[in-house]
Amino acid sequence: MPPPASILPARGALLVAAALGGVTDAAPTGTNLGFESNLNGWENAGVSIKNSKAYAGSRCLELKAGHIQQTISGLQAGAPHVLALAYRNNTGQDYNLSHARLLIDGNTIAEIHNGILSDYIDREGFEFIPATSSAVLRIESLGPGPEGFLIDAIRITTGSLAPPPQHDWSSLTVMNDARGGRQLANGGFESPVADPSTSQDITGVAGNPHICDFALPGWLVTRENVDVIGTTAAPPEGTHVLDTNGNGPGAIAQTITGLQPGAVHTLSFLCARHASWGTGDMTGEVRVNGRLVESVVRSYAQNWNAGYALREIPVLASATGTLTVEIRSTVTDRGGCIAYDDIRLKQGGDGFLAWSVFHGVEPLINADDDRDGLANGLEFLFGSDPQLAGSLPLLAQGQLRIPLSGLALSQGYDVDLMTSRSLSGWQPATAPGSGLSLISDSSAPGVDGERRYAVDPGETRLFWKHVLVPP
Ligand SMILES: [Ca+2]
Ligand SMILES: [Ca+2]
Ligand SMILES: [Ca+2]
């Protein structure tokens, strides 16, 4: 007797399942990624297997001054993947950091630098996009050896890394002092951090926790780990600051949403050098929406016992009204770096400077970085890219259409359009008999738009030029 019709799969459903199966059956596959079969499956040099201190199982890799590599299969060409692994320092001293590089098909996807001794660090991982369905994974020591990292539990998965936490502008704490603005979520690092003994993303001791991934409230730790330090660091706000080096060069990020699209804001923070870890300069970077907006350097004389310095950086919200702040350490060989506190965002600021920083050009209105004859000040006003050669607005179908940036207009920048019939005796386009008549203007402060001019009837020869009017 045939089964009831209701449990027979429809033909269409069968076809869909078969089509999906072809994609989802493929999963990243490697050999002996936890080193339980010693070095089976790995091409290697200068490494060994350790039968103690494993993160998972009973064996792990001692990287030393060498490398391992193997071909991973089952990847999806052109799609994001994540490589994760657990690693710990094996130098015997947490002030001697270990260093290694992770490569896919010969391209470095990350460097790891860490001095963590008490435990493994097992971060969210590192993203890469393979060109084909297989790729060569290589892990190589950057240190002189003979000691280096212990490595275990390598995992490769499809998909992207999680983005930083998002916080709406309206949710940020308004700061009623002369500096003003709103403090970012846990921008003063006062939110309690979980007990290191109960969180796998926190090591160290209570009062000096070393934190990775999402274990710092409000933030994502995007690199290595970071420290929340108490009164030792002479906090300028509250009782805690953030040291951007935990056991290695860390970074933190969060995204503010609900901002006016493209509008200028001022990012500010207090910063000082760690008072230990030698006497050399310490360095860091501030990135906004993926672009470097500030390089920070603090000398030994600028350590936290000498007080914290205020930095204020004009930045632009994205076209969708978001602003992702990332603060990174760039010191790869120490367990302490620049400490930050009281990170804020304020509406307003120097729009031309913010625009220049965003585009990576000097904030000089007469400079012409792309040598297209259009000075940076006019590029700002027209809303064009100062790194990409463009052209002046041209006459088309009897109309001159001049694009104008709402940001530049809101900052008090404008253009004087001048005309002449002989390349001398220039007069403003607004003057009677200039030869041009304004017929519409959709631009306004804060609103991108354009001014349209018509050429007056009977003009046989007319020149025009744009003269920047700074605020
Ligand atoms: Ca293992
Ligand atoms: Ca604080
Ligand atoms: Ca230019």
Could you explain how this protein is built, in words?
This protein has three domains: 27-158, Galactose-binding domain-like (Jelly Rolls); 166-349, Jelly Rolls; 370-469, Immunoglobulin-like, CATH 2.60.40. The longest helix is centred in the N-terminal third of the chain and has 14 residues, at 11-24. It has helices at residues 11-24, 351-359, 376-382, 406-410, and strands at 43-45, 48-50, 60-62, 67-72, 81-89, 98-104, 107-114, 121-122, 126-128, 135-141, 149-158, 166-168, 173-174, 182-183, 202-205, 208-213, 220-229, 241-243, 251-257, 264-273, 282-288, 291-298, 309-316, 323-329, 338-347, 395-396, 399-404, 414-420, 427-428, 436-441, 449-455, 463-469. It starts with 10 loop residues before the first helix and ends with a strand. With 471 residues, the chain is mainly β. One calcium ion binds next to loops.
Structural class determined from secondary elements: mainly beta
CATH class descriptor name of the largest domain: Mainly Beta
Under the CATH scheme, the architecture of the largest domain is Sandwich
| Number of separate structural domains | 3
**What molecules are bound to this protein?**
calcium ion
Mean pLDDT, to the nearest integer, reads 92
Largest sheet: 14 strands, mixed
Gyration radius over CA? 29 Å
List the total number of helices: 4
Approximate shape: elongated
The poorly predicted ranges are: 1-23
Based on DSSP secondary structure assignment, what is the total number of beta strands?
A: 32
Q: Distance N terminus to C terminus?
A: 88 Å
Oligomer: single chain
CATH homologous superfamily assignment of the largest domain:
Galactose-binding domain-like
Q: Tell me the helix content.
A: under 10%
